[in-house]
Amino acid sequence: MEKLVAVLQLLLALILAVAVISTLVNMVLIATRPETISVVNAIIGQGVLIVCLAALAKVIGGKGWRTLKGAPQDAQKNAGEAD
Length: 83
Fold this sequence. Notes:
Distance between the termini: 34 Å
Radius of gyration: 18 Å
Order of helices and strands: HHH
Number of strands: 0
Shape: rod-shaped
C-alpha cells in the first residue's frame, strides 16, 4: 500500500511540474500583450502560482521518492543530529 501511495505522489508531482511549465508558457504569452494593469496583475499572480506549485511538487515528489526507496521519513532529518 505504501508503494502505491508513493507512486501516486510521484505522479502528482509530475502533474504539478507540467502545470508549472504550462503556467510559465502562459505567462510568457501574456507578457507579449500591451502593458496594462490587468497584464501586470496576471504576471504577478502567475509568478506566485509558479513558485507555490514548484515548491509543492518538490515536497510531494521528495516524499514519494523517499517512500518508494524505502527510507524512513525521519531518517534524513535526524541524520545530521546523530553523534
